[in-house]
Write a structure and sequence with these properties.
Helix 2 packs parallel to helix 6 (154-172). The strands form 4 sheets. This protein has a 6-stranded mixed beta sheet, sandwiched between helices. Strands 14-13-15-16-17-18 form a 6-stranded mixed beta sheet, with helices on both faces. A 4-stranded antiparallel beta sheet has the order 10-11-9-12, covered by helices on one side. It has 13 helices and 18 strands. The radius of gyration is 27 Å and the shape is elongated. With 410 residues, it is of the alpha/beta class. The protein has helices spanning 11-14, 21-32, 47-58, 78-85, 94-106, 154-172, 191-198, 229-242, 253-264, 278-285, 287-290, 312-326, 366-385, and strands spanning 4-9, 39-43, 63-67, 90-92, 120-122, 126-128, 137-142, 145-150, 179-186, 208-214, 217-225, 246-249, 268-272, 293-298, 331-335, 342-349, 352-360, 397-406.
Length: 410
């Protein structure tokens, strides 16, 4: 099996000043094409660190993708480090210099002398074209490995990978079966709890599970060959173990809810206290779902409906019913006041009203509290739209009260 590594360069990446989205994108993109990365690493701008890392990777991997450090400034030392690691000399590539000069001339600007540096590459290199930027990529050999050097600008990097790197790599390497990732987004289970459940499944050769925890969800990933009939069988087994807590498959929860609301033609209005606008903001981030959100009330935590103190569940139910009625929506959602780890969440529909009081058994930061409560509310909505029991079971949430009032009883 050919071993592929990616190296991200730059102090801003190393120290976390910017998020390395290029690395995660490349991992996913290569995996889809059947080229799973064996390693990802990061190094700063120091030339000695770059040279050492290039040599180390060249002795242990077949293909290395290097990202960043091809700009015109003094801290862009990737080409110099590559030449040193390959024991090569730097030379001026006149075709790229002419390309740069033409680009600047076309835009009516004089090319700064510093940009000449972007045409100075190891002599044994071949240019990897970049029609949308000034930094050309280049390909060269260092010891046992083929290195591809790419610009850090995401748009330029992705274009280069799709149009040049992947086609070139496919020509070099033996034909491989494309891989695929299936995703199940779960809510209400711990990563260790999921692992304990899925460890019982004996996976066929070529398949493996992966997990990604990002509050409030845990994403269960099934890696394996594309178009393999075993995939569906495995997914059915996984769903059998996790179905109660699977909120969506191969799409985020909001996409799932958006499709269900669009299919049913229903509109939702929201009344928020505990979530303080987070639920509305989250739902309207999704362009399709935002079309199904009719109106939102964001109330102060000291607000009481009609200025009368009410029991928490009764208040949440009244808020859900009130906003549904006053905005002429099909569904009203509400989150009540968060008090001593407790909150009431309610939903009003033409079929009746559902409400529950839950206690969060874990301690969260303020914003994370809002995420968890908003997700419980959305899960109630999802379950109703999918004709499932509205109240879900969650390991880190304790339900202390629940109530359903059918329309006939209202």
């Amino acid at each position: 099996m050919n071993k592929i590594a990616m190296l991200s360069t730059g102090e801003e990446v190393l120290h976390g000043d910017i998020t390395d989205t290029n690395a995660s994108w490349l991992s996913r993109r290569f995996f889809e094409e059947g080229f799973a990365l064996s390693k990802r690493s990061t190094v700063g701008d120091a030339k000695s660190a770059l040279v050492n890392e290039f040599i180390n990777l060249s002795l242990n991997f077949d293909i290395v993708i290097v990202n960043g450090g091809l700009g015109p400034t003094s801290d862009d030392l990737t080409a110099e480090a590559a030449a040193e690691a390959a024991e090569d000399e730097l030379v001026l590539f006149k075709p790229w210099l002419e390309r740069l000069e033409a680009m600047f001339q076309k835009s009516g600007r004089v090319m700064p002398e510093s940009n000449i540096k972007q045409a100075v590459l190891p002599s044994s290199s071949s240019i990897v074209d970049n029609p949308i930027g000034t930094a050309c990529g280049f390909k060269t050999q260092i010891n046992n490995a083929t290195f591809y050097f790419t610009p850090g600008v995401p748009r330029e990097f992705k274009y280069m990978v799709d149009t040049q790197l992947l086609p070139d790599i496919k020509q070099q390497l033996q034909t491989v079966m494309p891989l695929e990732v299936s995703r199940m987004y779960t809510f209400g289970l711990s990563e260790s709890g999921i692992s304990d459940l899925l460890d019982k499944i004996a996976l066929p050769e070529g398949f493996e599970f992966g997990y990604r925890s990002s509050l409030p969800f845990i994403e269960v990933k099934l890696f394996g060959p594309m178009d393999d009939e075993k995939r569906l069988q495995i997914l059915k087994l996984v769903y059998g173990h996790l179905g109660e807590n699977v909120v969506s498959v191969d799409e985020p929860l909001l996409d799932n809810i958006a499709a269900s609301l669009m299919d049913s033609g229903q509109l939702v209005s929201i009344s928020e206290i505990a979530t303080a606008g987070y639920l509305t903001s989250w739902m309207t981030e999704n362009e399709q779902l935002s079309n199904s959100v009719k109106q939102s009330w964001i109330l102060n935590s000291n607000t009481a409906l009609n200025n009368v103190e009410q029991e928490a569940l009764a208040s949440a139910l009244a808020l859900a019913a009130s906003i549904k009625e006053k905005t002429a929506s099909h569904i009203g959602l509400s989150t009540g006041k968060f008090d001593e780890d407790h909150v009431a969440i309610a939903m009003s529909t033409s079929e009746g009203e559902w409400g529950q009081v839950v206690k969060l058994k874990r301690k969260y930061e303020r914003q994370d509290v809002r995420k968890v409560i908003a997700t419980i509310a959305l899960d109630m909505l999802r379950r109703k739209l999918e004709s499932k029991p509205v109240f879900g079971n969650y390991t880190f949430i304790e339900r202390e009260k629940e109530l359903f009032i059918p329309t006939s009883a209202l």
